[in-house]
Amino acid sequence: MALKFDAALGTSVVVFAFDGQHLRSLVGAKSLEPYKGAPMLPTNWVKANDSVEDVAKRMMNRVLGMDQIYLEQLNAFARVYRNPMGRVVNIAYYALLNWDEVKDIKLQEGYRWVNYNDEPEMIFDHNEIYEMAKERLKRRVKRRPIGFVLLPQRFTFNNIHSLYEACLGKELDKRNFRKKFMRSELLIDTEETVFEAPGNKKPSRLYEFNQQKYEKLTLKGYDFKF
User: Fold this and answer.
1) Which residues of the chain have pLDDT under 70?
2) Residue 127 neighbours by CB distance under 10 Å
3) Is 63 exposed, middle or buried (0-12, 13-18, 19+ CB in 10 A)?
4) Which of 28, 183, 222, 224 counts the highest number of beta carbons within 10 A?
5) Alpha helices in the chain (DSSP H)
6) pLDDT at res. 5
7) What CA–CA distances, in Å, run from 171 to 103, 115, 150, 163?
8) Given this model, what pLDDT does residue 28 score?
9) Residue limits of CATH 3.90.79.10 in the chain
10) Residue 164, phi then psi, degrees to nearest 5
11) How far apart are CA 184 and CA 58, in angstroms?
């Protein structure tokens, strides 16, 4: 007798972006009952003949109009009663976006940006997925240069410092941070400057990341002990 399967597959994406000072996250709202209007992560069903990653990418394209994003698989969430509608296995991802590319996008109805540490109470186990994504990001920025995905093409050292403090959830001594980061040879001084805030008397240097070094460390990794 042939086996019959009674389960569904879905995918959710935790989206992070950095606005120069703070991390932001994308939250949606359930469009149908049950729990219509309740906060949730961007989520989509996966059909039997679909690639889970392709579905996640298409969802990001539909919501944000972007098809080139940093996307990494996070984990599978498969508790039996995680969804009251039936057995649903969720393959979750997290995405990193450049804020300059998304800040002016008109979001679909129900979607909004929230502060990194102010996520709402979400349905199902989406808060658990969100917390796991935060922990993954915290580990990754210490061992891979993925933080640069979140920065504009040119940035100040204050931008990098604020980004790493936000990702790691703690204050970092700026002098020690600068020494360790400069030793990585990831930064290229553009020899240009910018006044970061009105009233600043001293301009800040603008940097770009070293693409060759970035690609090497993305594969090899490093260990920033802050």
Assistant:
1) 1-5, 225-226
2) 16
3) buried
4) 28
5) 52-64, 99-102, 126-143, 157-168, 174-183, 211-220
6) 61
7) 26, 18, 19, 11
8) 97
9) 8-141
10) -70, -35
11) 35
Structure tokens at 187: 């930064």
pLDDT at 211: 84
Q: CB neighbours of 15 closer than 8 A, spacing ≥ 6?
A: 25, 26, 42, 60, 64, 94, 95, 97
- Out of 1.20.140.10, 3.30.365.10, 1.10.10.10, 3.40.50.970, which CATH number does the structure's domain 145-220 have? 1.10.10.10
pTM above threshold 0.70: yes
The CA distances from residue 225 to 47, 147, 176, 222, in Å, are: 43, 15, 11, 10
User: Between β-strands 8-18 and 23-29, what pairing exists: parallel, antiparallel or unpaired?
Assistant: antiparallel
Name the architecture of domain 8-141.
Alpha-Beta Complex (3.90)
Task: Compute how many other C-beta atoms are within 10 angstroms of the C-beta atom of residue 89.
Answer: 17
Instruction: For 131, list phi and psi in degrees, rounded to 5.
Output: -65, -35
pLDDT digits (tens, 9 = 90+) for 44-82: 999 989 999 999 999 999 999 988 899 999 999 988 888
